[in-house]
Specification:
6-stranded parallel β-sheet; 7-stranded parallel β-sheet; 37% helix; Rossmann fold; alpha/beta; 2 domains; globular
């Protein structure tokens, strides 16, 4: 802490570890813990019913500790009906009164909304009296399916929303044509995008609201044990993520037959998993690891030739790329979405446009003497200078500080001091 007092933060999100599926919950958890470590009071509110509906498996073990973060999991006897009401109305129909009371009693200084599509949608933004921030972890504000993946087959070039949601077997959301979103966005003091690409996509698809780019961060690097045993007997490239069609593995798995020098290890689960496993049937060079904890993943990151990010849809950022950088492992990513700006800023990876480009990138890293080591040096430097906890939290608190100055929040300013210059643009480190 640099100021004389602690702020009271409340994070509102649909998913929060261990009741989460992807990077958004991980980002919220890291932010909450980082703020708590700096002496701030942090409460996280998430929706247990949403996770249970979509996970369709027993609850994971509850964490033994939350590092000073208070966690509230909302549940309702209405279960999936409560989620449907929130999804269809864009408001916290079932949990609205409890949330309003919780926010009032907590006397929070900062309300930070994350992925709240099933927690209460844009109707949440009117609740509470505090500095209010929203981080767009996906494209939910401008896309009913969240991912700009049109008709389940291609990155969305233009709106065909009704046909698209029906293809995804989701009910249309009438509130999107009522002006509710625009009215509720007026309650927010800052809207944050994880990448400049995501900021531009929101504008392209009609979000009439200024956004500021603030990426996620990685925790300090884990020392590499000198005596760590190999996790795989052959050289390998690593994929980490949910097994969905838009993640791009459908084209990669058959391609590995043309690259005999390395295997493909796949960490993660998802509804597309059976299709991918069928595609890999008979191949000894594609191995599915299943769902692994962060501690279990660490040695796989460290020992990989490269981490592969072949998404064919529009991501907003990539926690997986930062995890690779944290371990000094280069990245091979499709030339799409936010990946070019991340790899350009870091200098620690290679982009590809097609199958031949992917094969050439793998060969370059594996067969060019010193190539992987040099890329690894760059990504470690980038992780420390662009995406470290200290760097990003300083920028985050400056967003809060500037919002408080605009709205006259004297207590926040007393804790954080006068507005500074903590929102520098993402730039490449000296290589």
């Amino acid at each position: 802490m640099t100021g004389p007092g602690a702020l009271r933060f409340c994070m509102l999100t649909t998913f929060f570890p261990p009741y989460n599926f992807g990077g958004d919950g991980i980002m919220v958890e890291r932010l909450a813990r980082a703020l708590a470590r700096r002496g701030h009071e942090v409460t996280v509110v998430h929706d247990l019913d949403a996770w249970r509906l979509l996970a369709r498996r027993p609850d994971p073990p509850r964490p033994s500790g939350t590092e000073g973060v208070r966690v509230i999991g909302l549940q309702s006897r209405l279960g999936s009906l409560a989620l449907l009401l929130a999804h269809q109305s864009g408001r916290p129909v079932v949990h609205g009164r409890r949330l309003a009371r919780l926010l009032a009693e907590g006397d929070f200084d900062v309300l930070h909304f994350h992925n709240v599509s099933l927690l209460g949608g844009p109707g949440l933004f009117a609740l509470g009296d505090a500095v209010k921030l929203l981080t767009t972890h996906d494209h939910w504000l401008v896309c009913p399916t969240h991912v700009l993946w049109r008709h389940g087959r291609e990155p969305c070039p233009a709106r065909q929303c009704l046909r698209c949601v029906l293809h995804h077997h989701r009910p249309p959301q009438a509130w999107r044509s009522t002006g509710l979103l625009a009215r509720r966005l007026e309650h927010l003091d800052a809207v944050l995008a994880l990448s400049d690409f995501s900021r531009r996509k929101h504008a392209e698809f009609g979000l009439a609201r200024e956004m500021e780019v603030l990426p996620c961060f990685v925790e300090p690097p884990v020392p590499d044990p000198a005596t760590a045993p190999p996790v795989h007997t052959r050289p390998y490239v690593l994929f980490v993520g949910r097994l969905e069609r838009l993640k791009g593995l459908d084209g990669v798995i058959p391609l590995m037959a043309r690259y005999p020098d390395a295997d493909l290890l796949v960490a993660g689960e998802g509804e597309h998993g059976p299709v991918l496993r069928a595609l890999a049937r008979g191949s000894e060079r594609v191995r599915f690891l299943g769902r692994l904890s962060q501690a279990e993943l660490d040695p796989f990151y460290r020992q990989a030739l490269a981490v592969l990010v072949p998404s064919v849809g529009f991501e907003t950022f990539s926690v997986v790329i930062l995890e690779a950088f944290r371990h000094g492992t280069p990245v091979v990513a499709r030339n799409l979405g936010p990946f070019p700006e991340i790899l350009e800023a870091s200098g620690g990876g290679l982009l590809f446009d097609d199958d031949e480009g992917l094969l050439a990138a793998l060969a370059d890293i594996q067969r060019t003497p010193g190539r992987r080591a040099e890329l690894g040096r760059r990504v470690r430097l980038a992780a420390a200078t662009l995406w470290s906890e200290d760097v990003v939290i300083a920028r985050y608190l400056d967003v809060v500080r500037r919002a408080a100055a605009r709205t006259g929040r004297e207590r926040v300013l007393a804790c954080l001091g006068a507005p500074g210059s903590g929102a520098e643009a993402l730039t490449a480190p000296d290589r």
